[in-house]
């Protein structure tokens, strides 16, 4: 049976992400880092918003597509450099995804909708963009936060948590507080949101 356009798009995103030279270990197994991340985005999105549209599901799967192709150290190692790197990445992710969507036969209107979600247009005003942002924050908190927190001072972590919390919706906050944090991480979260 021929795959649907949606299935074909997801398969091409996964194929691109499976080429990641960076790996991430889970339970003793190495996975291409961005392939694992994209699958976690899908899983978290569907837990958080089971009725997510196909556009939102594709955006979530492609959020970090080929991220390794633009290295962080290509930009100054300060806040301005970091933000410029992130902005360049977002545009690359959006454009690569649009190319895939056109390749599998989606129209411009659908492709533009996915692109707007990936570019995080109208967060707090557009429901899909907000759900996308909530999902990104939840994936970070659930899968990457403990490891990240070990590498930085408590002050920096609390600051990052505060910034993360502001980006999220009330529904996102509720979902975040259901995560099984370590004791130390939970203490940091509570400090940040009090």
The main pleated sheet reads as: 2 strands, antiparallel
In round numbers, the mean pLDDT is: 93
**What is the succession of H and E elements?**
HEEHHHHHHHH
Number of helices: 9
Give the terminus-to-terminus CA distance. 53 Å
InterPro entries: DUF4202
Protein name: DUF4202 domain-containing protein
Pfam family, one: DUF4202
Account of the protein in words:
This protein is mostly helical and 194 residues long. It contains nine helices and two strands. Strands 1-2 form a two-stranded antiparallel ribbon. The chain is globular. It holds the Pfam family DUF4202. It comes from Algibacter mikhailovii. This is DUF4202 domain-containing protein.
Which terms summarize this structure?
single chain, 9 helices, two-stranded antiparallel sheet, DUF4202 domain-containing protein, DUF4202, mainly alpha, 194 residues
Topology:
Layout: H1 5-17, E1 23-26, E2 29-32, H2 33-48, H3 54-62, H4 79-103, H5 108-118, H6 127-150, H7 154-167, H8 170-176, H9 183-193
Antiparallel strand pairs: 1-2
Helix pairs in contact: 1-2, 1-3, 1-4, 2-3, 2-6, 3-5, 4-5, 6-7, 6-8, 7-9
Write a short abstract of this structure.
The protein is mainly alpha-helical and 194 residues long. It contains nine helices and two strands.
